[in-house]
Design goal:
Blueprint (H helix, E strand, L loop, with lengths): L1 H5 L4 H20 L1 H4 L14 H19 L6 H17 L1 H13 L3 H8 L5 H10 L5 E7 L11 E7 L11 E6 L13 H11 L3 E4 L11 H16 L12 E7 L1 H18 L13 E5 L13 H12 L4 H6 L30 H9 L3 H4 L56 H4 L17 H25 L17 H4 L8 H12 L20 H4 L5 E6 L5 H26 L14 H4 L6 H12 L3 H4 E6 L14 H20 L50
Parallel strand pairs: 3-4, 3-5, 5-6, 6-7, 7-8
Antiparallel strand pairs: 1-2, 2-4
Helix pairs in contact: 4-5, 4-6, 4-7, 9-25, 10-11, 17-21, 21-23
């Protein structure tokens, strides 16, 4: 046909026609199922908004490209190759998904850091720098630890301030940010675009903390560092970073892992206050807390129970399941999810021993058996001449070079005693990369609590749960019971959105293992510092105003919704409990049983303090306690995408305006920093984030969208 169109018969045109026809036929056969409509359903169809899906397409291509170029040396070549590979994977998007799936199946620390810290690439850094707003101050600061701290490592932070530098000394309000990064990656420099936008929009100083990352600094190092930062800033009234030093109001912010740290700062303040009610601490509460897609629940239903782990250890000690038990020690591998022995770099292995030969035997006879004196006990061999394994419990051969006859690695099987300093950092197991090691003799950092302590904690939680249930029962008598929102088969968001393009289940498990580290064995069902969603109601009732934001398709969306509901529920119960206490009744003993205020007041507070707390809660509505925003068809990490999504840029600006409004409407004269129940209320929500009143159900979703964007979340 081509020669007919050209008007001149030519054998080369016919050959070209045959080639094109063959390629077309092959392509059609490979995609015959799609042509006939028999292809598999697309799991991501209608899951994300078009703008968010386009952003994740670019992010996935960048992740695949950077992961592919990760092993290239030198650095200048790796930076250039990362961009080239990323462009390739943006064109071939399916190849990018498959490449990233393989990398994420067994993620290493280096892989996670390389793919998340992409903006340190000089080419991407230049692009984001050109799009970021200008600020007067962009400064790296080191802060000392407070005197009461157990640590001596200085705190590293980055300060951003948009107005002229001479105005910094007049500032009395500070935005204290804890950036996300799965507890293992990303410093404030990787969140710089957002931090600059906050500084410009709010006209307040923004201090972002570069806290210690796992596995080098495992749990609870980052939590303690976050609390030490807040404490040293409050004690100095901000003078350490150049503020006036007369007074200081702080709003805490955190996204993803940083949200966990921000919540823990508030919990630590409340714990410190409740330790001694008669002499409350002078450490004030933050003005408000802003959380973006926080990770508040580490109970991924992936952890072995204590009883099952005990049985596994027992089987391991008997020698029958040694290899299987070693696989469960995730910190002995380079990747926390690896289930096979690591492949060490060949050049870094210990000296290899060659296979013995008949020359060695003759040499041994000539030396009169001196070589045999080194090991008087002969090796056991089979009839075929191959070596037999040593007997179980034979300590003499426990560390023998059992692979001498097969040109194999003669390293010890006990990796804990191996010197890993000879390996490059990326080839060391996680346990060998830990820099801060907690003393084993310290009861405060023991691997697990004693049975008595666990029992007492469980009983305390049970009593508190019963009290809350009784209080709610007294106040809701005669009310119609609400219908349950699901059944026992309802999936969590982590399970429902297991195909998320930003945070995969394997990455979540890897981050949890790396974050917890080798020094702790927490109980994921009760430890509310690991999982703040489990915090006791009496602490949640004292929380400052909260703004929570999350994508509706985020694997962590359940954390946001449930935490917001628990705070509302705790404040409702506390308000009702105070009404009963001051009226001489007690829900703990039943509504009909009259008691004096002195008898029911077991908190050590005076009636005036209880009345002031009750009046404060009575003057607030639930929007003053918690404001929650869920963005329709978005998932995780949108605060990192202002360059890729104009909607994300608008959300960042809205958050800055919300914080500016919180500072403006906060009246320091109403705050009594010495009161253990002090919470600071944002009386009027920002008009840009006005949300409908919350549903009476504690787990109800409150969805707010920007009208000018036209986004709408499904009910």
């Amino acid at each position: 046909m081509i020669d007919h169109l050209v008007g001149r018969p030519n054998p080369s045109w016919k050959r070209t026609q045959i080639i094109l026809s063959t390629l077309t036929t092959v392509y059609a056969l490979r995609n015959l199922d799609k042509i006939l409509g028999l292809n598999a359903p697309e799991p991501l169809a209608r899951l994300y908004s078009p703008s968010y899906y386009r952003a994740t397409w670019i992010v996935t291509g960048l992740d695949a490209g950077f992961a592919t170029a990760m092993a290239i040396r030198p650095k200048w070549l790796r930076d250039f190759a990362s961009i080239i590979f990323s462009v390739y994977y943006m064109i071939y998007a399916q190849e990018a998904d498959e490449k990233l799936r393989r990398f994420r199946a067994v993620p290493t620390v280096e892989m996670l850091r390389v793919t998340w810290e992409k903006t340190t690439n000089p080419y991407l850094k230049l692009l984001t720098h050109l799009r970021s707003p200008r600020v007067a101050i962009r400064r790296k600061i080191h802060l000392p630890r407070p005197k009461a701290s157990l640590y001596d490592r200085p705190i590293t932070a980055w300060l951003f301030f948009a107005p002229p530098e001479d105005q910094l000394a007049n500032q009395t309000e500070l935005i204290l940010d804890f950036p996300g990064g799965g507890f293992i990656a990303m410093s404030p420099e990787h969140h710089e675009e957002r931090l600059r936008m906050w500084a410009v929009t709010s006209r307040r100083p923004v201090l972002s903390i570069d806290y210690g990352k796992a596995p080098e600094y495992p749990y609870p190092f980052a939590i303690d560092e976050a609390f030490d930062t807040y404490r040293v800033l409050v004690e100095s009234n901000g003078a350490l970073i150049g503020l006036g030093g007369s007074k200081l109001s702080i709003i805490l912010t955190g996204d993803s892992a940083g949200g966990t740290l921000a919540v823990n700062v508030v919990l630590r303040i409340l714990e410190l206050r409740n330790m001694n009610v008669s002499r409350p601490t002078s450490l004030p509460m933050p003005t408000a807390v802003v959380l973006s897609y926080p990770a508040l629940d580490f109970n991924f239903t992936s952890w072995m129970s204590t009883e099952n782990l005990r049985i596994l250890r027992s089987e391991q000690s008997s020698g029958s399941l040694r290899e299987l038990a070693e696989q469960k020690d995730h910190l002995k591998h380079v990747s926390p999810l690896s289930m096979v022995r690591d492949n060490r770099p060949f050049s870094q292995r210990k000296k290899l021993k060659r296979k013995s030969s008949w020359k060695d035997a003759i040499r041994g006879w000539a030396s009169g058996g001196e070589d045999q004196d080194e090991e008087k006990r002969p090796r056991r061999t089979s009839s075929t001449g191959s070596k037999m394994p040593p007997k179980l419990g034979d300590k003499r051969h426990a560390r023998s070079t059992g692979d001498e006859g097969t040109l194999a690695d003669a390293e010890s099987s006990d990796e804990d005693e191996e010197d890993f300093n000879q390996y490059p950092e990326e080839a060391r197991p996680i346990r060998a990369r830990v820099k801060y090691k907690y003393p084993s003799g310290n009861d405060a950092v023991a691997r697990s609590k004693s049975a008595l302590e666990r029992q007492q904690q469980e009983l305390s939680l049970a009593v508190e749960k019963a009290n809350t249930k009784a209080t709610l029962g007294v106040g809701s008598r005669g009310a119609r019971a609400s219908e349950p929102i699901g059944t026992r088969l309802t999936m969590t968001s982590r399970t429902g959105y297991f195909q998320d393009r930003i945070v995969s289940p394997s990455m979540m498990r890897a981050m949890a293992i790396l974050y917890i580290g080798p020094h702790r064995n927490p109980d994921f069902y009760t430890d509310y510092h690991i999982s703040p969603i489990l915090a006791p109601a009496h602490l949640l009732a004292q929380f400052p105003p909260l703004l929570l934001q999350c994508g509706e398709k985020d694997p962590f969306v359940d954390d946001t919704v449930i935490f917001a509901g628990r705070v509302r529920e705790a404040k409702r119960a506390r308000k009702m409990e105070l009404d009963l206490l001051l009226s001489g009744k007690s829900a703990r003993f039943g509504e009909g049983l009259r008691m004096s205020a002195a008898q029911v007041n077991t908190e050590g507070k005076s009636p005036a303090e209880l009345r002031a707390e009750r009046d404060k809660l009575a003057g607030e509505n639930e929007s003053d306690w918690v404001q929650m925003v869920l963005f329709s068809d978005w998932s995780h990490g949108y605060l990192q995408m202002p360059t890729l999504m104009s909607e994300a840029k608008a959300v960042i600006e809205d958050m800055a305006e919300w914080m500016e409004d919180a500072f403006t409407r906060y009246d320091p004269s109403l705050a009594d920093s010495g009161a253990s129940d002090q919470t600071l209320t944002l009386r009027v929500p920002s008009p840009k984030l006005t949300i409908p009143p919350p549903d009476p159900s504690p787990l109800a979703k409150t969805v707010a969208t920007r009208a000018r964007r036209g986004q709408r979340a499904p009910e």
